[in-house]
Design goal:
The complex is a heterodimer. By secondary structure, chain A is an alpha+beta fold. Chain A has helices at about 15-25, 35-40, 80-85, 85-90, 90-95, 105, 110-120, 125-130, 150, 230-235, 240-255, 265-290, and strands at about 5-10, 30, 50-55, 65, 70-75, 135-140, 145-150, 155, 160, 165-175, 180-185, 195-205, 210-220, 225. Chain A has 3 domains: about 5-55, 2-Layer Sandwich (Uridine Diphospho-n-acetylenolpyruvylglucosamine Reductase, domain 2); about 60-175, Uridine Diphospho-n-acetylenolpyruvylglucosamine Reductase, domain 3, CATH 3.30.465; about 180-290, Enolase-like, domain 1 (2-Layer Sandwich), CATH 3.30.390.50. Chain A has 12 helices and 14 strands. In chain A, the strands form 4 sheets. In chain A, strands 4-5-10-6-7 form a 5-stranded antiparallel beta sheet. A 4-stranded antiparallel beta sheet of chain A has the order 11-12-13-14, with helices on both faces. In chain A, strands 1-3-2 form a 3-stranded parallel beta sheet, covered by helices on one side. Chain B has 2 domains: about 5-80, Beta-grasp domain (Ubiquitin-like (UB roll)); about 90-155, [2Fe-2S]-binding domain (DNA polymerase, domain 1). Helix content of chain B is about 30%, strand content about 15%. Chain B is built from 5 helices and 5 strands; from the N terminus they run E-E-H-E-E-E-H-H-H-H. Chain B has helices at about 25-35, 90-95, 105-120, 125-130, 145-155, and strands spanning about 5-10, 15-20, 50-55, 60, 75. Chain B is globular and about 50 Å long. Classes of the chains: A alpha+beta, B alpha+beta. At the A-B interface, helix 2 and helix 6 of A face strand 4, helix 3 and helix 4 of B.
């Protein structure tokens, strides 16, 4: 058999899962969709002694809108990003990025919370969390706390979650009026890890001046990379071709820190970032203006 | 003492009961425990698509699940597609007629990917077909005849 032996638990409730985790923290792994964890176990790169499978408890699979926020249960399958109406309507950035997350066969099993906690720098969901300024709710057996997405991703495959905590919910604020969005990435083949990708949000005022901007990159460092200087360049300025060019130059030239790999050199990744940022900003600005 | 867990699973409308170690992959369970060797195993890390099955009607990689996770669930494998020994499923018939396979190793996974795809998208464009096939690797055909077979299957199923 491929994976090393482990003790298996499939609790019926979150409380039971948290109790088991509390008693085995450090040696246990949470099994969500398993689309990254199981391959790692098949290679024996990861050998947990206890596996806690969350697939038997229905309570963490939901999407609902409450008070200008979208609440997404951590075990909601990635496939819902494509078809779930509240997401299509209220989180168009997530919806636009969904088809880029691996393949339908993977999205049918893979979960939104699982991808966030895995914190792969090349994954889409951590970038989307940062761009949307989402909050993440973690629970352990005695308490719960909210963590801002910007404090959650602390390094490659590393998050602010404690060993006894489970991510239970994602809270995505709805976009302010006159906000445009865009998600673009370039991958060797559909469904592959992207060589570079960017999520952009732009809010305009009634005169067409940029009130706020967010540009977040994948595969551009050891986590999702928030290009704050480029966003600063845009903020308070009337949008123009030159402004888009200089923001794209700043983000791709100095703010991101791609490592390069066999598919793309660092120079090529920076080139892609520049081209994608220009395109994404134009799309987002156009969409924001349509809403005026 | 190795932990084993009872699994009751419905595969192609037949109920099976086995006692397995939790670390047994569902792909290995289908092949070694149930003798259903139509589901092929290629990369065993979710890339090649050869082990694709239907889990509650939706395509999934059987190598990225444990057999214990299938307990109580409805599964369809390639063996469940043809209505009888003498009749192929229209997608299988189309692959036969359009030469959509050479060695055949990737074929079961591709067929299981296409069943829900053509249900959701009965009249796909070539671009959509190629996109749908992106999660299944074929090293023989160069994909052209597979794409032709999918077009033919869509025609047949209208």
């Amino acid at each position: 058999m491929k994976p090393a032996p482990f003790e298996y638990h499939a609790p019926d409730s979150l409380d039971e899962a948290l109790f088991i985790l509390h008693n085995s923290a450090g040696d246990a792994k949470i099994l969500a969709g398993g689309q990254s964890l199981v391959p790692a176990m098949n290679f024996r790169v990861v050998q947990p002694s206890v596996l806690i499978d969350l697939n038997r408890m229905p309570e963490l699979g939901y999407v609902r809108k409450e008070n200008e926020k979208l609440h997404i249960g951590a075990m909601t399958r990635e496939r819902h990003l494509e078809f779930d109406l509240p997401i299509v309507k209220w989180a168009p950035l997530l919806h636009e990025a969904a088809p880029h997350i691996a393949h339908p066969q993977i999205r049918n099993r893979g979960t939104i919370g699982g991808s966030i906690v895995n914190a792969d720098p090349a994954a889409e969901l951590p970038v989307l969390m940062l761009a949307s300024q989402a909050r993440l709710k973690a629970r352990n057996s005695s308490a719960e706390r909210w963590i801002d997405a910007r404090d959650f991703f602390i390094g490659m495959f590393t998050t602010a979650l404690e060993p006894d905590e489970i991510l239970v919910e994602i809270e995505v604020p709805l976009m302010p009026p006159r906000t445009g969005w865009s998600f673009l990435e370039v991958a060797p083949r559909a469904g592959d890890y992207a060589m570079m990708g960017v999520a952009v949000l732009v809010t305009l005022d009634e005169a067409g001046t940029c009130q706020a901007a967010k540009l977040v990159y994948l595969n551009a460092g050891d986590g999702p990379v928030d290009a704050q200087e480029a966003a600063q360049l845009l903020q308070g300025e009337a949008v123009s071709e030159e402004l888009i060019d200089s923001a794209s130059e700043r983000a791709s030239g100095t703010e991101i820190n791609p490592f390069g790999n066999i598919h793309a050199s660092v120079e090529y990744q920076r080139h892609l970032a520049k081209v994608l940022t220009k395109k994404a900003l134009k799309i987002a600005i156009e969409r924001a203006a349509e809403e005026r | 003492m190795t932990q084993t867990i009872p699994v009751t699973v419905t595969v192609n409308e037949k109920v099976y009961q086995r006692q397995v170690e939790p670390r047994m992959l569902f792909s290995d369970f289908l092949r070694h425990e149930l003798g259903l060797t139509g589901t092929h195993v290629g990369c065993e890390h979710g890339v090649c698509g050869a082990c694709t099955i239907l889990f509650e009607g939706e395509s999934a990689r059987s190598c990225l699940m444990f057999a214990v996770q299938a307990d109580g669930h409805q599964i369809t494998t390639v063996e469940g597609l043809a209505p009888s020994d003498d009749n192929l499923h229209p997608i299988q018939q189309a692959f036969w007629e359009a030469h959509g396979l050479q060695c055949g190793y990737c074929t079961p996974g591709i067929l299981m990917t296409l069943v829900p795809f053509l249900k959701q998208n009965p009249d796909p464009t070539e671009d959509e077909i190629r996109h749908a096939l992106s999660g299944n690797l074929c090293r023989c055909t160069g994909y052209q005849h597979i794409v032709d077979a999918v077009k033919l299957a869509a025609e047949k199923m209208k």
